[in-house]
Amino acid sequence: MDQNKIQRFNELKNRASKNFDKYLNALLNGTDVYMLPKERLSDREWRELNGLLSEKNVKFIETIERGVPYMQFSKINNHDTFENAAAKIKMMRFNELKNRASKSFDKYLNALLNGTDVYMLPKERLSDREWRELNDLLSEKNVKFVEKMERGVPYMQFSKTNNHGEFKRATAKVKVMQFNAIRNKYPYLSDSVIQEIVDNQDNISPGQIYNMIRHTKKKYNLSRDEFNKAVAYGKTPNDYIDVSQYQQWTWVRQSRVQQPHAKRDIHHISLNVNIVEGLIKALDDVLAQDAGRYIEYYKFPKSDYYDEAITRHDPVTIYLSARNRDIEQKIVRAVAPYARSNEGLLGEILGYGVDISPETTQKYGMSVGQMVGRQIYAMLKNYNR
């Protein structure tokens, strides 16, 4: 590649992602597959980048996640690895449908086959004809997708064709006992969510319970314009605050001053709040006062994820390197004008719309919500033994 091409390649790479080489190596080494927001380059520039990547047998393919277009790293296979063309075409079609349905398709399928979890995929990712086609391709594995409704939205759920369910059908008396047990253990879950979990327990997984408890059935009242203004302000650094991107859908704000920590005991504070510009400014004030002593950072959804802001019980999360009552109460006071309710909060309540929990992902690889989903799942099973 000549010098001009190298310079252009580096320019496009940097605009596509500052971690471009890391993501490319992950693909080539078979350790992970990443997606980049399509909006970062024009269609012409993505085609140009694909041309520059062709010698590595890599290209970007467009994929849609929750209605948002992304460009996914993908290997180009130039070798005929199948015994005949018909088998090759069938496998290519299977892989195409799998990738469009979910980049984690094989992981979810194995979880079903191993009996560890049951996942759902948004129905909108494929047409009705394509879901039928995918079911035909999966038939030899005794697996199919069945349509399910969650909060009025259609999903396609992995299902064994000979699946008899893990639970015995609960009687009305048992369901009342289950409802009360969940209500007593998690008092801030709404009655409607608990009832939905109990009523659908025959066809539910810990992952589905997690999604049900972290989202409200009724959307919170927040205008898109207010949210967009907050995000526009929040993605911009200032003299005191640095900004970075986390997992492609979240903005992170962090104090420019970082104190050394001899021992880190990470906790996270969940905020059931409306994301408006005033909230971001209020959190920035606390961040500046803290000067890196206890607050690691706080994060909130990007503008493409408005649905998270209006349906998730904790759309904003603050991470602490250690607990400190003074800083916790400053956070409570700062967010009070923007707090919506305690609904869906699962940790220790610090104030209205604010709770705190140990950061379990470091120890168990799961969030607090995911662990609660598994605990509720186990409670339902215990009542049916």
What CATH calls the topology of the largest domain is Phosphothreonine lyase fold
> How many separate helices?
15
**If strands are numbered along the chain, what order do they take across the biggest sheet?**
7-8-10-11-9-13-12
CATH class of the largest domain, named: Alpha Beta
Shape: globular
User: How many E strands?
Assistant: 13
Give the helices and strands as they follow along the chain: HHEHEEHHEHEEHHHHEEEHEHEHEEHH
Structural class: alpha+beta
User: In percent terms, what proportion of residues is strand?
Assistant: 15-25%
Main sheet properties: 7 strands, antiparallel
Regions with little confidence, pLDDT below 50 for 5+ residues: 78-86, 163-170
Radius of gyration, taken over Cα atoms and rounded to an integer in Å: 23 Å
- Please state the second-level CATH architecture of the largest domain: 2-Layer Sandwich
Helical coverage, percent range: 40-55%
Domains counted in the coordinates: how many? 3
Amino- and carboxy-terminal Cα gap: 66 Å
Structural features, described:
The protein is an alpha+beta fold and 385 residues long. The protein folds into three domains: 76 residues, Ribosomal Protein S8, Chain: A, domain 1 (2-Layer Sandwich), CATH 3.30.1370; 85 residues, 2-Layer Sandwich (Ribosomal Protein S8, Chain: A, domain 1); 220 residues, Phosphothreonine lyase fold, CATH 3.30.2430. 43% of the residues lie in helices and 20% in strands. The protein is built from 15 helices and 13 strands. Strands 7-8-10-11-9-13-12 form a seven-stranded antiparallel β-sheet. A three-stranded antiparallel β-sheet has the order 1-3-2. A three-stranded antiparallel β-sheet has the order 4-6-5. Helix 1 crosses helix 3, helix 4 packs across helix 6 and helix 11 runs antiparallel to helix 13. The chain is globular. 25% of the residues are buried. About 4% of the residues have low confidence.
